[in-house]
Amino acid sequence: MTEFTHYTLLADGEVFAPNVDFDTECGRYIMAMKVWAKDADQAADMIVAIGERLGFKPDGELQVFMTEPDEPADDQPFGYDIQFTSYSEDEENEAGEEERPKWIH
Questions:
Q1: What whole-number distance in Å separates Cα of residue 12 and Cα of residue 89?
Q2: Are 27 and 15 spatial neighbours (Cβ–Cβ below 8 Å)?
Q3: Residue 45 vs residues 11, 13, 41, 50, 100: alpha-carbon distances, Å
Q4: pLDDT, tens digit, for every residue of 1-37?
Q5: DSSP assignment of 2-50, as one string?
Q6: Distance of CA 79 to CAs 10, 29, 47, 102, Å?
Q7: Domain enclosing residue 26, as ranges
Q8: Rounded to an integer, what distance in angstroms lies between the CA atom of residue 3 and that of residue 23?
Q9: Domain count for the chain
């Protein structure tokens, strides 16, 4: 049994520096990441820190979910399965309030 909990996170933000490894360009993205962390606060801190190293600045809403892992826990917290999905602010505005998910942190 591990002292860590598994989370999946989604962060809304801006890619400020393109990243060839993740095929990102400057613009709006949702960053998704799975982590093993001590708690939800540490998981949120991890997506912010790792995102900034990858050229992404979370500046919007953040969702944190307890999920089943795809990778086993280690003796240290870590993140994996990082993905970026681009969108435009026009697409977000077209979605309308009724269709928007309720964001949590």
A1: 11
A2: yes
A3: 11, 14, 6, 9, 24
A4: 579 999 999 999 999 999 999 999 999 999 999 999 9
A5: -S-EEEEEEEEEEE-S-BGGGTB-SEEEEEEEEEEESSHHHHHHHHHHH
A6: 13, 18, 8, 24
A7: 5-89
A8: 34
A9: 1
